[in-house]
Design a protein that fits this description.
Strand content: 15-25%
Radius of gyration: 21 Å
Structural class: alpha/beta
Helix content: 25-40%
Largest sheet: 5 strands, parallel
CATH class of the largest domain: Alpha Beta
CATH topology of the largest domain: Methyltransferase, Cobalt-precorrin-4 Transmethylase, Domain 2
Strand order of the largest sheet: 7-6-8-5-9
Order of helices and strands: EHEHEEHEHEEHEHEHEHEHEEHE
Oligomer: single chain
């Protein structure tokens, strides 16, 4: 029986990764979620850090909640095939879209439905794990900014080890695996180890986030192209390979992923490169989720205005005249 949880206070007394799909579903349906646990998995820590739920190890007054979920049943582990009888398994990279499980492709869902093991990122739609067979092994490899993180080397090792044990490993990644997702590194690791690997493309947030906020990245007579860049390092950083002066002159819509922390430096570099401080901009956070927020402004003010209202990562910045368009 389904329950309407919109606006209701829900207490979850389980901090393990088994609880994440249920918590993600509650958040999707508009519940006000508190998780009480002595320790919590990385995915729940990340949701709390992003302000989407409260995470506490202090005793909670259960009478103050509309619904209490005491524990999430652990499915019986699936019998795992042995490599000796089944041969090497396989790995499938699934781009899971910007966050809403409804934006996972049909091919992506079909792949999850056949998984023996799911290796999931922090921004993957965890409620989509409900499509997986009972007893599927879920491995949380969240990379939390300034928090718990799984190295790319360890992720590559997990994919190869489980595949070589004869399992179908689904690597569930937010957005598209090849757009700043290190997906091709994982393909290379699997290929080097002799593990068959395929890729299911996903809806990239570089297009989806602006679109869900009512912004087209191109528009006839206004923008003939768009440029997607990573803002994980600021302009002038030794690891930055971007020419911000050239970007400022490009005449394209600029879409910045992973750039909330560095947005002040990015906007400054673009203005130094000749882009007008009055250029319209927008910042879209939690695209496709019930917590989605967007702010519109100018190049000179967007970073300050976003910080003033607490609009943080994950968010996509859009820079260009298309952000000022109205339906």
């Amino acid at each position: 029986m389904e329950m309407n949880v919109t606006g209701r206070r829900v207490l979850v007394l389980d901090g393990t990764d088994h609880a994440v799909p249920i918590v993600a579903g509650l958040l999707r349906d508009g519940a006000d979620v508190t998780v009480h646990a002595a320790t919590a998995c990385a995915a729940l820590e990340d949701l709390a850090q992003r302000g989407r739920l409260r995470l506490t190890d202090e005793p909670a007054d259960e009478t103050a909640f509309d619904l209490v979920i005491r524990s999430v049943p652990r499915p019986r582990p699936r019998p795992q095939p042995a490599a000796a009888t089944t041969g090497t398994g396989r790995v499938t990279l699934v781009g899971a879209g910007p966050g809403d499980a409804g934006l996972v492709t049909v091919a992506g869902r079909a792949t999850i439905e056949t998984a023996d093991v799911v290796v999931a990122d922090r921004l993957a739609p965890w409620e989509s794990l409900a499509w997986a067979p009972p007893g599927v092994q879920v491995i949380d490899v969240s990379k939390i900014p300034f928090g718990r993180s799984t190295s790319q080397e360890d992720i590559n090792r997990l994919l190869v080890e489980h595949a070589k044990a004869g399992r179908h490993v689904v690597r569930l990644k937010g957005g598209d695996s090849y757009v700043f997702g290190r997906g091709f590194e994982e393909v290379q690791a699997c290929t080097a180890a002799g593990v068959p690997v395929t890729v299911v493309p996903g809806v990239t947030s570089s297009v989806a986030a602006p679109e869900l906020a009512g912004i087209p990245v191109t528009h006839r007579g206004l923008a003939q192209g768009f440029t997607v860049i990573s803002g994980h390092v600021p302009p002038g950083h030794p690891d930055s390979t971007l020419d911000y002066a050239a970007l400022a002159r490009s005449g394209t819509t600029l879409v910045v992923l992973m750039g909330v922390r560095t947005l002040p430096a990015i906007t400054e570099a673009l203005m130094d490169g000749g882009l007008s401080p009055d250029t319209p901009c927008a910042l879209v956070g939690d695209a496709s989720l019930t917590s989605q927020r967007a702010i519109h402004g100018t190049l000179a003010r967007i970073a300050t205005d976003a910080a003033a209202i607490g609009l943080g990562a994950p968010a996509v910045a859009v820079i260009g005249d298309v952000t000022a368009l109205e339906p």
